[in-house]
Amino acid sequence: MASVREKKLKRKEILERKKAIDQLIKAASAHSDHLTDFPPFRRFHRDGLSVCLESGRGNKLSPPVKQYTQTLLKVNMEGPFGSEWAEEEKVKRREMVSPDARYIFVHEVPNVVANECQDKGPMVGFVHYRFTLEEEIPVVYVYEIQLESRVQGKGLGKFLMQLIELIARKNHMGAVVLTVQKANLSAMNFYTSKLRYTISSISPSRVNSLAEVEKSYEILCKTFDNEAKAMLEES
């Protein structure tokens, strides 16, 4: 009888944990504007570049914004994806308008004063992220971080990823996870060397290193607690 009782308690514990995690993700996804939690991150001014950030959702993109994000994505990613791009583009376009998609839009501005953005100008980049589960760990999954070439190399990418990590921690996520094409050497170096992300234990190269057909991408992660580290970093 003790064994049966223990199994019931264990099952109850598992179900309660699952419910708690589901509620975490639901609450994080329901937040209308995560930037309100981090006022200093609403603007960025460095090396002659001034931008302001605003939040958005995939199912509320205006036609001009949808067109911009799709165009910038193609400009930046068609090369790294190579022959896989035609099919990948279709997948990404569906992902980008999902109700689960959350956005940070980056607008260039002539002036940034205090916490206020004046004369919001053209968009120069965006981040597409979601709150989801990986190996039963609640995570922020960064689907896209895309910047126009003229605003790269000024620290803006690092700034945006630091913001994503703050959003993840604020909402009690265990990690930030993202996918990088192996052919995109500059991105791989950016994440692993500058931001100290590691190749996850769920990445194809670690799940099945003897696979006949090698995958063209790696899954990277940065974990924030021991449980996430055990599930997503350690094999």
TrEMBL record:
Name the principal localization, coarsely classed: cytoplasm
Give the superkingdom in one word: Eukaryota
Q: What is its EC number?
A: 2.3.1.257
| Keywords associated with the record | Acyltransferase, Cytoplasm, Nucleus, Transferase
A Pfam cross-reference name: Acetyltransf_1
Alphabetically, the GO molecular function entries are: histone H2A acetyltransferase activity; histone H4 acetyltransferase activity; protein N-terminal-serine acetyltransferase activity
Residue ranges of domain N-acetyltransferase in the record: 63-220
Catalysed reactions listed for this entry? N-terminal L-seryl-[histone H4] + acetyl-CoA = N-terminal N(alpha)-acetyl-L-seryl-[histone H4] + CoA + H(+); N-terminal L-seryl-[histone H2A] + acetyl-CoA = N-terminal N(alpha)-acetyl-L-seryl-[histone H2A] + CoA + H(+)
* EC top class, as a word: transferase
Membrane-traversing stretches = none
Checking InterPro entries in the record gives: Acyl_CoA_acyltransferase, GNAT_dom, NAA40
Q: Where in the cell is it found?
A: Cytoplasm; Nucleus
Asked if the Swiss-Prot or TrEMBL record annotates the protein with the keyword Repressor, the reply is no
Sorted alphabetically, the Gene Ontology cellular component annotations on this record are: cytoplasm; nucleus
Q: Which Gene3D superfamilies match?
A: 3.40.630.30
Describe the family membership recorded for this protein in Swiss-Prot or TrEMBL.
Belongs to the acetyltransferase family. NAA40 subfamily.
Q: What is this protein called?
A: N-alpha-acetyltransferase 40
Organism, as annotated: Rubroshorea leprosula
